[in-house]
Amino acid sequence: MDYITLNNGVKMPVLGYGVYQVTPEECERCVLDAISIGYRSIDTAQAYGNEEGVGRAITKCGISRSELFITTKVWISNAGYEKAKESIEESLQKLQSEYIDLLLIHQPFNDYYGTYRAMEEAYKAGKVKAIGVSNFYPDRFIDLSHFAGIKPAVNQVEGHVFQQQKTAHEVIKKHDARMMSWGPFAEGKNDFFQNPVLAEVGARYGKTVAQVALRFLIQQGIVVIPKSTHKERMMENFDVFDFVLSEEDMSRIEALDTGESLFFSHQDPQTVEWFMSILD
């Protein structure tokens, strides 16, 4: 496993296991499978509804808590200082842990400044080892980074070969933070797993399209959290540290970038209206 070092000195695995859309019923089993393979970083969120499954798994896995890296996120409805403070305590209870390794603001909506103050407080109290944000576009990330007392260590954003977030990545690095990719396989959109460039590159290394896509991000120092409920696929996704893509192959993959989201824009009024509607 390779690690990156966050801006406060905390070491974080560059590859983790994400549990987005993993059902509460399946989550414990999936996380135990991932840990048995060698994953030490697990990414969950309050909105996923499966923090308790993660908590059960990390208490049963037989691995020391200090060897695990657990990320969770504060949801929009828990935004603001008081609500966020309460929700952090609830997450700690569900995760059955005395601390969270990385705590993020899940979406750039509602009183995220109040949320961030609660996160800074939890950080100072030792309940959180690192704090950051998720889905913050460069403008909002710069704003928060400038005024925050504790600089965000991570910005988790959509990141894959078709949406490489080149501008966002440069801004994140400039502010001494790390980019973390959600959806590294673009959830299969654009015929991701049949992409001829990724397939051709992979064939030269004896690797799959998925492994090439993960390696492409990892070589840029981007943290990835692929998800699968199948143990054999988890193993495949983990097997990305025994090869290095050439500069030529990196350039070919860079050319796949469209510069646009395959999902939604947080700056689109209709998208924002949708987010507000699911909170009602």
UniProtKB/TrEMBL annotation:
The keyword NADP applies. Residues 21-257 form the NADP-dependent oxidoreductase domain. Pfam families: Aldo_ket_red. Keywords: NADP, Oxidoreductase. The keyword Repeat does not apply. Belongs to the aldo/keto reductase family. This is Aldo/keto reductase. It comes from Aequitasia blattaphilus.
